[in-house]
Amino acid sequence: MKEHKWRYMTSFLQQTNIPQESKECLERCVDAIYELCGEARQCYSETIKYNENELAKIMLLDGCFILELFVRCHANVEVNEDGQPDPVRKSAWMITALQHDLGLLENQIPFFILVRLYEIVKPRATKNYSVASLALKFFDPLSRKPRPEEKDQLGVNLYQLIKHIL
């Protein structure tokens, strides 16, 4: 999975063919993760054993992987940038396993980390979806309930109240 995570992170951060833009995107994401590390630590009941650099690396890698996975599943992309079949997407059992793994409490990263990473990369992306709507679409096959509306009757964005994927 580590190889897939690195490949997905690279794909997520390279929304253009201009290397300088991809480098700047990576730098902005790294800066954002470091800014949010302290707040992220407070989201866990147990003490996080990783130092700031290790935690930032995990949050960046996992966050980008999750977001790229959501985007690929939403857009039904089944090939890599090189035109070869994506090993993650071509395997139904792997998607099911990822849906299960991402639903486990111990695998949660704070939702605000995902939102911040997506906000940085989103201007480079062609579609305009919220992280919450992408997550709901990814987990839709497991849900027995209708997908909630994004806004309530007063226009309040309910998806902004989300703390984690669960």
From TrEMBL:
Pfam families (UniProt xref): DUF247
Highest taxon, organism lineage: Eukaryota
Stated name of the protein: Uncharacterized protein
Source species taxonomy: Eukaryota, Viridiplantae, Streptophyta, Embryophyta, Tracheophyta
